[in-house]
């Protein structure tokens, strides 16, 4: 995919949205395999492409859940085109509706890999 940042900016302005989150589902039965590979574009806000977007991937997990795609946890890869691959993990707490959304993964801060910089802490009710 070769993004046209000018056209994405126009579309973002028309739709009154911050970014466009593109994804392609992956096919695998392996437990830790990615659910989808994603790219996120926000050129209207001077961010041509982001290597990791937790908020957008949370929304994507909810969208996939509503389509009936319901793995135990969603694993999204993002940043391949930026040579900064991120694995973003999203878990949904549900009954008949989505009750809670949690996001985590690996992150790089000042050149140091921090495993599982996440919110897996205590939000249990």
**Total number of beta strands:** 8
DSSP summary: helix tally: 2
Quaternary state of this entry equals single chain
Structural class: alpha+beta
Task: Please describe what this structure looks like.
By secondary structure, this protein is of the alpha+beta class. It has one domain: Diaminopimelate Epimerase, Chain A, domain 1. 19% of the residues lie in helices and 36% in strands. The chain contains two helices and eight strands; from the N terminus they run αβββαβββββ. The chain has helices at 5-15, 54-66, and strands spanning 20-25, 36-42, 47-50, 74-78, 86-94, 98-105, 107-109, 112-114. The strands form two sheets. Strands 1, 2, 3, 4, 5 and 6 form a six-stranded mixed beta sheet that branches. Strands 7-8 form a two-stranded antiparallel sheet. The longest helix is centred in the middle third of the chain and has 13 residues, at 54-66. It is globular. The model has no long low-confidence stretch (mean pLDDT 87). It comes from Butyricimonas virosa. This is PhzF family phenazine biosynthesis protein. GO terms for molecular function: catalytic activity.
Which labels suit this protein?
alpha+beta, Diaminopimelate Epimerase, Chain A, domain 1, 6-stranded mixed β-sheet, two-stranded antiparallel ribbon, 19% helix, globular, catalytic activity, PhzF family phenazine biosynthesis protein, Phenazine_PhzF-like
